[in-house]
Structure formats: C-alpha cells, structure tokens
Amino acid sequence: MCPSYRVTGEEMHSTRGRAHLLFEMLTGETIKDGWRDETVKEALDLCLACKGCKGDCPVSVDMATYKAEFLSHYYSGRLRPLYAYAFGLIHVWARLTNLLPFGARLANFVAHAPILGDAFKAMAGMASQRSVPPFAEQTFKEWFCSRSRNVRTGARAVVLWPDTFNNYFHPETAKAAVEVLEATGFSVIVPEADLCCGRPLYDYGMLDTAERWLKKMLLGLQAHIRAGTPIVVLEPSCYAVFKDELVNLLPNNQDAQRLSGQTFVLAEFLQKYAADFELPKLHRKVVVHGHCHQKALIKMTAEEKILEAMGADVEMLDSGCCGMAGAFGFEADHYETSIKVGEHELLPHIRKAAKEAVLMADGFSCREQISQTTDRRALHLSQVVQMALRENGNISHGQYPERKYLAPVPPRPSLVATVAVLGVVAVLAMGLVKAARRND
C-alpha cells in the first residue's frame, strides 16, 4: 500500500487514485490542462517514488516512473523549485565540493554551523529539523587510488560502482565492499572517470539530464560491459537505475541491455560468483530493513540467505518504506509526511531492537532516516560481512556494535567558532575592498 496513502487516507494519494487522475489527464475530458494540471501535480507531490506499487500492484503500476514523466513535462521550459536543483544535482555539488581546497571541511562547517546552517537549509528548501549529511574528507575513490592494490595474478575482475552517496558521504561502506570482494579472490576495479547514474534526477523529472548522464556512464563503462565483467552496485536506488530506468530511457541501446544484465547487489554477487567462498561467521542478531527499490525489483532473499549462512539470527523487518525516500524526507514541505511514514513501521522497530543487535540497511536514505530519528545507526551488508571477517567469529556482544565500523559524526561548530569565522571573513573582505579602492 502506498506510504503516503497510509498517512493521509486520501484517495488521491493511493495508487488507484493517482492512476485514475493520470488517465483523466490523458483523455482530456475532465482534466483540461494536460501536463500542466495542478490537481495531478498535487496528487503526485506526496508520491515517495518508492516503487512499492511496481512490486506489490497486480498490474505492476510504476508510479515513480509516471511521476518523473509528468514532472518532466510540467516543468518543460520553466524553472523548478530551488530544492530540485539542490537535491537533484547532488552529484554536481558533491564533486564541486571535492574539487575545492578543504572543500569538505568548508561545506560541513557552513552546513552545520549555527545561523549559517539554518540559512543554508532554508535556501535549499531543507527541513530545519534535518541534519545535512557530512561530506567525507577523503572520498572512496581517493582512498582507492592511494592504497596498495591487492591484485592477484589471474584473479577474476569485478567492477565496484562508486555511487555519489558511498563515494562522497559514506566511503566506509565502499571500503568494506573492497575488503569483502578481495577476500573472495576477486580483483576490484573502480572507474576513474566521473560517472553518475543520476538517480536523484528522476525525482524531479530531470529526464533529459538523466539521459545524458546515462549515455556518458555507458561510454565510461563500455570496455567492462563488453568484456562481460560483473558490476556490483552498493546503493539500491542506483541498482534500480541500472536494472530499470536505464533500459526504459535507452531501450534500443545494446550496452544498456548488457549492463542491466551484468549488475548485481553485493548479496547477489556473492551467491552467483563466490559460491565457494567460505563466509565468515557472525553469531549475532541482525535486524534488516530492505530498501523499497530493491524489494520492488528483486526482494531481499539473497541478503537473508547470506546472513543465515554466516550463522546470524536474522530478523527481516516487514517495515515498508523508511519515509526518507531519497531527498523526499529532507524537503521542508515533506518532512512531516516523511516522519509519519517512518513512524508507521520502521522507526518503532529500530527503537525496540536490542542494543547488542546489528542493524542493517543498504540504502543511504534509509540509514539517514534511522540515524536522524533514533540513537542507532545502520550498517550496509558490506560492513556486516567486514565485521565478521575482521573479528573471525569472536565478536563481543557489547552494545551499539555499529559504532566500530562507522565514521564518527563530526561535532557541530559552536556559536563562538561561527562568529569568529564570520569575523575573519568580514575583515578579509574589508581588506580586499580597501585594496581595490587604493588601486583605483
């Protein structure tokens, strides 16, 4: 059942109601404004693009795709709200931050400092209650390029996709994946070019940009695609692009078809290509929340089997959508709905979970919803396997086991530090102005 419909109870927020409105729009008999109709836009506004309807609906209605197509037409030739550019182009802003000297530190300071942080969130259309995920000071790709390669002669190759979220924000997830993949005997390849599947673009109907990025991605991966090299994608929403949006936007592109067939989440890959690998033991309770896109496309069967083979006591939550749903829960207009969706199932389960249990959620937005609304943080499957590899079954049963495998949350700058920095900036600016006047 649609998460927003469970919150509002309004027919217009059900899959049936939205589909009916789209039908009326296309026939043009009742709804006269076509792709610019405000009633249709309002009905789609609370769609979290979770793809739950694609997996649960008997006729596989894909409202997320319908919403992207509608917004593409609705905003054709006119500007979108500022938050669409702030969140939809997150890859651009993350890369720009990374290119600037001390860019990550500067961005984190501005985003989290008193006054500055609030102003930044207001400008970006972000809910004041939300915290901006901090940028990592060293990206995953920087770490990968600087490390000593563990290349085995004759080892089979696997491409690890460095998505925006696990490259710029949570590099520890991708680092763990490298450790796990190399432990299975594979040689890991990470694309050097700046590539992105453009997943956030679909939420705002930026389909032309998404198509361009996908074509660039296919070109950058062409050699690996044609060599038949398997590709592991850690972020489930990016996996959905490789398997679904890619072939929908480029239906006649043979490389797109090949790539879709060569793409795997980590659990799938371990089952298919590393079946002989002796999984490390993890004698712990593992509470698992599945990402909506993954559950809609392939379910969570592979993850459950991998964890059970490791000896874990697995609890697969029937938790529906986390409520964050990409950028949806960060947006000021959607914050209340996001929290209500999360509180319907997931968040109460997380708060009830034993402090000794490992929490697992592969989705970036799912992990953010958990960390920003509870005292827990969830791990990716790659980190859960890494935990078992490193501790060799001798895992202590202390509380909050995730803390050892996650980067600490940076402290928020104090008001005094913020005022001091602003003062320095003001003095420098005044100096530049005086120097310019003297030169005149």
Q: Can you describe this structure in just a few lines?
A:
The chain is mainly alpha-helical. The chain contains 25 helices and seven strands.
Distance between the termini: 68 Å
Radius of gyration over all CA atoms, rounded: 23 Å
Quickly give the structural class.
Answer: mainly alpha
Shape: globular
Number of domains: 3
Q: Largest beta sheet, briefly?
A: 4 strands, parallel
Mean pLDDT: 92
Strands of the largest sheet, in order across it? 2-1-3-4
Poorly predicted ranges: none
Number of continuous helical runs: 25
Q: Roughly what fraction of the amino acids lie in strands?
A: 5-15%
Number of E-type strands: 7
- Share in helix: 40-55%
Describe the structure.
The protein is mainly alpha-helical. The protein has three domains: 3-74, no CATH class; 140-272; 278-405, Rossmann fold (3-Layer(aba) Sandwich). 54% of the residues lie in helices and 6% in strands. The protein is built from 25 helices and seven strands. The strands form two sheets. A four-stranded parallel sheet has the order 2-1-3-4. The protein has a three-stranded parallel sheet with strand order 6-5-7. Helix 7 (90-99) crosses helix 8. The longest helix is centred in the last third of the chain and has 25 residues, at 415-439.
